[in-house]
Write a structure and sequence with these properties.
This protein is of the alpha/beta class. It has eleven helices and eleven strands. The protein is globular, with a radius of gyration of 26 Å.
């Protein structure tokens, strides 16, 4: 009986003490837990063009679907290795056919922060170089032909493109879509510029950043680019793109551009991944001196002028500027202080404008952020 009573006493004490131990144990764990701030880019979708029954363009032996897949997989590997916290999603990771509509759906469903579409080009045997596209109106017949060729994939789909029959890709529709995705479009152009810079750095001929009405870019809802990595109809370029060494060079250039783009968005140093130096220069009110670098945070873009008292600005004081026949609106003003502007961007992203980003001006003209940061440091 004594043994039974003693056992019951122990059980009572356990019932009382265990919850306390768990409570204080969990509280202690909470005190030592470090929550790392999330980066601006959490998910990247990489889209290898064509695939399966759709070989894309070709040279004497190489097919677009194969060289694009190799570069896409290598780029994804590099991002995963360099940034294990970033989720990398492939629209295809093997030789299968994926409909254009589904490629965009994969990116949208993943809530991607960046969409990278990789293709190869075809033209005359003398054509060469790389070019990166964002959504927009083509300016030349050559650009229109490239978009038409890539969009023609829809005729290989199960319904022979029937679901796109009433899809509006008129100039008016594309302009409307550009306005709808205006903040993303600005970021797409920034990334495209960096891509072309890195391609040039590895010795590729720079054909520039261009615009065209690609279906896959039209339907994605995040910063999106389509890279034409080179011309398979050019013997030298075909040899380069079909070779694993060339594919790794191209993927390496894309990865470096990605790193620089990510660092710029997040306000960290590209090489060290640490914070940009903060000179503690105070916030000023639109008082630009000659040659000063002024950083602002862009929150809105519109085809027509918006009243400064509009509810869209959520009581923020805004500064308006015009670019590409559009009205663009910014908040805050920081002279020679990117770090302070970037910190302010992070603050208003959490509160009012989740897609805000930093822009820079010199003598009233917008300049690239990379150039502005270098000038501000001098």
């Amino acid at each position: 009986m004594n043994r039974l009573e003693n056992s019951l006493k122990w059980l009572r004490w356990l019932v009382i003490l265990v919850p306390f131990a768990m409570l204080f144990g969990f509280q202690g764990a909470k005190k030592t837990t470090v929550i790392k701030p999330q980066g601006t880019i959490r998910t990247v979708v990489i889209d290898a063009g064509h695939g399966g029954k759709d070989p894309g363009c070709h040279g004497s032996s190489a097919h677009e679907k194969n060289v694009c897949l190799s570069m896409a997989l290598e780029l994804g590997r590099k991002i995963k290795e360099g940034y294990p916290e970033i989720k990398v999603v492939f629209t295809r990771d093997k030789d299968v056919f994926v409909e254009l509509d589904d490629r965009a759906k994969i990116a949208n469903k993943a809530n991607a922060d960046l969409f990278i579409c990789i293709h190869a080009n075809s033209a005359s045997p003398s054509a060469s170089g790389t070019e990166t596209y964002v959504l927009g109106l083509h300016k030349t017949d050559a650009q229109a032909k490239i978009a038409d060729r890539e969009n023609s994939t829809i005729y290989l789909e199960a319904d022979k493109g029937e679901k796109y029959k009433d899809f509006d890709m008129s100039p008016d529709a594309i302009i409307a879509r550009q306005l709808q995705l205006s903040l993303f479009l600005d970021q797409s152009i920034v990334f495209a510029d960096k891509l072309q810079g890195e391609f040039k750095a590895i010795g590729r001929y720079d054909r520039g950043v261009k615009q065209a009405g690609f279906l896959v870019l039209y339907k994605t809802t995040m910063p999106s680019v389509l890279i034409e990595t080179g011309f398979l109809t050019n013997k030298e370029e075909e040899k380069f793109l079909a070779d694993s060494t060339g594919q790794k060079k191209m993927a390496g250039a894309m990865f470096t551009a990605f790193e620089k783009y990510k660092a710029e968005l997040e306000g960290v140093d590209y090489k060290t991944r640490g914070p940009q130096p903060n000179n503690n220069i105070p916030l000023v009110e639109k008082n630009e001196g000659k040659d000063q670098i002024v950083f602002r945070v862009q929150i809105e873009t519109s085809e027509s002028k918006i009243n400064s008292n509009s509810a869209r600005f959520k009581k923020h004081n805004v500064f308006e500027y015009q670019q590409d026949k559009l009205y663009k609106y910014t908040v805050g003003e920081f002279v020679n202080d990117f770090a302070a502007a970037n910190s302010y961007k992070n603050e208003i992203r959490q509160k009012d404008f989740p897609h805000a980003f930093v822009v820079a001006f010199q003598n009233g003209e917008r300049i690239s952020l990379e150039k502005a940061i270098k000038l501000a440091e001098k």
